[in-house]
Predict the structure.
Amino acid sequence: MPTPAIEARDIRKEFYRRKERGWRRLLPGAPKEHTVALGGVSLTVNEGELFGLLGPNGAGKTTLVKILSTLLVPTSGGGTVAGHDLLKEGDAIRKKVGVVLGGERALYWRLTARENLRFFYELYNLPRAERQHRIDSLIDLVGLKDRADERVEGYSKGMKQRLHLARGLLHDPEILLLDEPSIGLDPGAARELRALVRGLTVKQGKTVVLTTHYLYEADVLSDRVGIISGGKLLTVDSPTALKARLADRSSVRLVTRGAPAGFEAVLAKLPGVTQAAVAPEAPAPDQQAFRVLVGDPDEAGRSLPLAVANAKASLLAMESHTPSLEDVFLELTGSTLTLGGNEVRSGEDE
Amino acid sequence: MSVTGFGRAAWASFIKSGKVAFTYSPWIINRVLGPFLWVSLAVYAYTGISTEANVQQRFHEVGVSGDFTTFLILGQTVFSFFTAMNWRSGFAIQRERWAGTWELILLSPVNRFAFLTGEALFGIVDSGWSVLLAMAVAAFAFGAGFTLGSPLLAFVALTLTLLAMVSLGFFFASFYVLSRSAGPLSMAIQAPVRFFSGTQFPVGALPAALQAVSYAIPITWGLGAVRATLTGEPTWSDLAPTLGLLVAFSVVFLTVGAILLKRMEHRSKVNGTVHLF
């Protein structure tokens, strides 16, 4: 049985913010707005696992990461991180957890990458003798060797993000919490960062929790994905298993030439096929298009071309559409993930 | 956290602050010119309307010794150190908030006082050389008369005064942990401290009720001790009560500051205000 690195038990977080702006907010009894950021989240992340927390902006991802990293105190609930009590052993957790909150800030812009790392290395009271080697190897790992002695203010977003990652790894943490690590990055930089993150679990055996609203990122990186929306964790499973839940919604689009009338009825009776219909949009007048719903994609993949051949028709195209995490998200929440601007590009270009 | 760990973290903060500060080199000019101009203003404010003889008569009435220029220079020196501490200790947290690095410091297992100690030490060094340079120029320009009876006693008096200031700064630090809006607090205490601690006139000249406020401020005692050791020849026993009070102030502010800092950090994590800037 896998050992849990993180166990969150019914974590709830509520915020109270003053509604008024300006001086009125300082008055006693000024009305406050009540927000439930997390409505009772329970979660287990196993050692060495890369766990993706997928959800739209405002879903509660960052709040959960901040609670697990001891930056926020939950309103109720608790748990353990790296074997330590979340509410009572903050110092012990901070020694074992690396956190990358990312973004443009959270670095000393007037200092170089090396100076930034040296400062944080000292805060962790790590062995003096290993400092130089540790910092050099991290700079190497994140690909900043040629720019390590330049001020951070001249770095691109991607370089800053890689430096954030190096800082989070300084004390060689058992667990790494990454909050939206690839947000705002161009596709190339996002790809590099994902490769780095994947390497941390595969090569170094670290436990990684990664929050993202990029479906692609959650899909390709995560061993398991938790889908969170409105402060609730809706489901947790591997990307494959999540998509398999909608396996009966897989479909195939067939384009043929010379198929006999009523061929869709033949297709519907094939092994692995649930339903078949004539699709309205045939590419040319002498061609026929069919939309076939498949229950068993493997079986259908074998039987469909055979049926076309048996009907003495030509198979011009066969495109399969497998359910994506987007479909799963849609199924669970009734809405799509909200993406915008560059963020869409860095997630979807791949 | 071990003593070594505390020292390393404090030193790292000191170096970090120094490197950042020296990337803004034009400010050095302000730091040198500021204290000199304040002293000049005060000297001319008095010599423009009175004579040294009149001032000496008034000094005698309120129990102050030494010439007026030296009195002012030392007042400005101690106040400049206070200003540096005020903006370097608690306010250091505000700067980290602006940089977005405060969360990272809280994410590390570092003792928060270690971080603040490094910041405060840099404040002392950073302001120290410029204040002392400015005061040396002022002393030369206006003819100050220093009498250094016991260098060791003067050193101890100055050190304990600085310690009391750092402690006060640590006390205020907790408010910066709780809120991003604590900046006005540092600004608000500047003028009252300048007024009540007797930087530019003897505290004895104030009405009795206001003197009570003066003697509740550690800077007043520190300034008294520094002036005494640099303009007269007090003995250790003469200054023992004052030095003892400075130690007591420091212990109280550090203890209360440490308790508050821990509570305010927890409160800011409950409120979710750690990330605000």
